[in-house]
Amino acid sequence: MIEHTSSQSSNRVYQIHYGASSNISFLNHLYRSFDSLLGGTRPIRLLNDFSKTLGQVGAENPESTMALKTCNKAVLLGDELSLSLAIEILEHFLALHQVLIPVLCPQTLKSDLCAFYDPGSCYALSNFRRRTLLLVLATASLTTKHHKVVDGLISQFYDLTGPSDDNLTMESIEVDCLLISSPYPYACYYTEKGLYSNAYLTLGSATRKVFSVGLHRDPPQGSRPDLEIEQQRKLVWILYNLESWLCVHLGRPSSFTGVQIAIPSPSDPFLLARVKLSDLMNKCSNEIYIPTRGSLLSMWRAAESLLCELHDYEDNVLATLGFGLHHRSQLGELDVQQTILTTLYLHTITLVFRPFAIFNGKLKAQQVCSGSSDASAHTSQPWLDEVCEYALNATKRLIDYLSLAMSSNQNIKNMRYTHVFLENCCALLSYDILHNHHKLPTNVPLITKSLACLSQMRPGDSIQQTITAFQSLLVSIDPDGAWCDSGSNDWVSLNACNGRIADHASPSIHDPSTWHHTDESIEVLNDAVRRVIS
């Protein structure tokens, strides 16, 4: 639970829940571990940097400082936003967001945009189509240098919103989908703005509308046109995909839990691949992060099963879509699709094995505090270090992939939602350094490369806070390090980073039946894991 002050009532304090699978939860644990190891002598600067991230103050209003200073009045289409610029922004949406939310027709959007700028045709557009166009432009502008126009666009969007727009219609569900979705799923309006809790609430609203009108089940045969039924199916699966990712990211329960989706699987191979990955993310959340397991052995067996399924998934993606999930990205639409699946795939692997890394770090911290060599002998297990390498290797692969992709493709730089994955990578590598100081030469270049990727994204408060927080952490861990200049905001440079980090084959992990331990040592491990996942 993270304490947060309501933006609507400054004297009211409420609790926002972030579960164990969330970045917020892990950053909180990293921060407390760092504080504990330094004996409560953490620098004030580091406290301030991380408190913004942990409390989500900056993440809830990432563009506030930047946008409000430069946009004091509504931007009117045709006034301050020219048709040529609007077309450019729309093309950004079609290249990036339309891949994720294919619920809108590109040709319709283009013709509506032209009509919007034609005084004779503007008022012929329905209220829904005008609202949709404004929301599309606002969303896409957030990924570009033209992000200053977003406040005016979204103001016009809300001006056109009436009470009837909450009715149970396909149109209202599609608008909710645009409000919460993004490049899997963080590029549409709420998530591009960093309003993750708002996105969660809006997504819940859209999902319940789907359940209320029964779209999660096929209608009686012949009762509706086939094209309409297919569009409804697609919308349900898109919502399921977005819901799965967002719930895992925030560590919150899914609205789809316990609901039987009685419609055929998607016919589109890319959407089907996203749905199957969503199934694995949900399984990870339910079997790894729900604190009902009292044994490290059962937790490991769940992780081992998930890893096998993830490897099978990668093979299936290669066979059906024609690209792997760790090779260098390609150009065009396939590049966006590959990046979406690759980053989520590798992020899911890190989530599967991250609890083992936390558990291992806690054991090492306890050994340091006790100063007992006997305790180390009882709790040190080589297989546990090898298990942790799964998470670390997936982290290395993810950083390497994004670094290469961003260096060659502007579309990937525009996918600002990937900062969520890079933040997790930096946190995991930093946590590894805290408990294994000899990992500094290995992990610091990777963190540096991650921050270099972040520095290439369109600037914003949330991005800068992440960079600043980890700069401060690295400087505090190794104040004399020659690898950084803590006084410079642009101390990370892609050209200054190490060369490409080769993919490492995942280590073979011993079968639990071959572990050599005493009853006493396994009981110590089991007792510790209960504390880690509680």
Automatic annotation (TrEMBL):
<dbReference type="GO" id="GO:0000981">
    <property type="term" value="F:DNA-binding transcription factor activity, RNA polymerase II-specific"/>
</dbReference>
<dbReference type="GO" id="GO:0000978">
    <property type="term" value="F:RNA polymerase II cis-regulatory region sequence-specific DNA binding"/>
</dbReference>
<dbReference type="InterPro" id="IPR007219">
    <property type="entry name" value="XnlR_reg_dom"/>
</dbReference>
<dbReference type="Pfam" id="PF04082">
    <property type="entry name" value="Fungal_trans"/>
</dbReference>
<protein>
    <recommendedName>
        <fullName>Xylanolytic transcriptional activator regulatory domain-containing protein</fullName>
    </recommendedName>
</protein>
<dbReference type="GO" id="GO:0005634">
    <property type="term" value="C:nucleus"/>
</dbReference>
<keyword id="KW-0539">Nucleus</keyword>
<dbReference type="InterPro" id="IPR051127">
    <property type="entry name" value="Fungal_SecMet_Regulators"/>
</dbReference>
<dbReference type="GO" id="GO:0006351">
    <property type="term" value="P:DNA-templated transcription"/>
</dbReference>
<keyword id="KW-0805">Transcription regulation</keyword>
<dbReference type="GO" id="GO:0008270">
    <property type="term" value="F:zinc ion binding"/>
</dbReference>
<dbReference type="GO" id="GO:0000435">
    <property type="term" value="P:positive regulation of transcription from RNA polymerase II promoter by galactose"/>
</dbReference>
<feature type="domain" description="Xylanolytic transcriptional activator regulatory">
    <location>
        <begin position="199"/>
        <end position="272"/>
    </location>
</feature>
<keyword id="KW-0804">Transcription</keyword>
